[in-house]
Amino acid sequence: MLQRIRNMRSRTRSNLITFGIVIGFYAVVQILSAAGLLSSAFAGQLIPICAYVILAVSLNLTVGFLGELSLGHAGFMSIGAFSGVSFWVATQGMLPRWLGVLCAFLIGAVCAGLFGLLVGVPVLRLEGDYLAIVTLAFGQIIVNVINALYIGIDSRGIHLSLRDAAALGLEEDGKVIINGAMGITNIPKASTFTLGIVLVVLTLAVILNLIHSRAGRAITAIRDNEIAAQSIGLDITKYKLMAFIVSAVFAGVAGVLYALNFTSLVSRRFDYNTSITILMFVVLGGMGNIRGSIIAAALLTVLPELMRGLGLESYRMLLYAIVLIAMMLFNWSPAALEWREKVTAKAKKAIAARKKAAAPVKDNGKGAA
Q: What domains, with CATH codes, occur in the chain?
């Protein structure tokens, strides 16, 4: 019982530190913005940072805690982006702005979650490289379907075609929503940094609570040993689908947040390179390490623009690669892991010694001789 209380305290402390990092980052940015010290280049990266943090944290649930290698996260992101933004564009002037934005996020999350269910049922029967290849193919299929898709709306309802915009047969006052490879244009921007931080905090609250719940312990048990987990009666399919769908839902939310930061949206923003980038955030931050995913996503999103701002445009990709290698070595090198364990052990000893020295001496009832 005492050990359980200690574990709960440690978990609460760790979660508070994670939320504190996010809120502290928001406070620093607001202070810099108020003082006029925030560059336009960095300000333009704030919403993508929030979107990538959500993507990294949600993918970590599948890759880090479930132990399944998925490369289709950009596909779920694109589904959320196009479904949510399509609703946002189609309902301009019909709903209050706040309600339209809220509905756009809900629709993006639900559509991505439904596709997560449809893809997860057959795909999660595969393992390892096979799962990675199939999810990567799913992402490419989504991109190609959106490229060939034409959707419009008029007083008669929604029209769909796979030929061209003229084949939609819209009325004169009709509106083309998705125009094939041109995607969605003339999008009224709605994303803000504050909204992004709120969504990051919401994502962390849901993912962290899931991880530390009974379902989360079942998910990690499946990762550690699927046969042993099945032998004690865990429903493997149920928990795999749960992790996969929750991950897809938040990928859809991130897609809507990302898309509402631009005036136009094309499917090539969500190609396989985006999936690899998101996976890179998870791997470099540490699989199963939520805080590491946050830091890696934020750092690696802003680093290329920071290099450009410092006049290192010619060496930008070289320095970017060096940072990636350094982070990999720090996170996974045996020597680095051993050094980190030694530093942690020394810090714990120092804290324990300080507490012991500060503790009052108990009177044992015996006076001095």
A: 11-33+42-290 (1.10.3470)
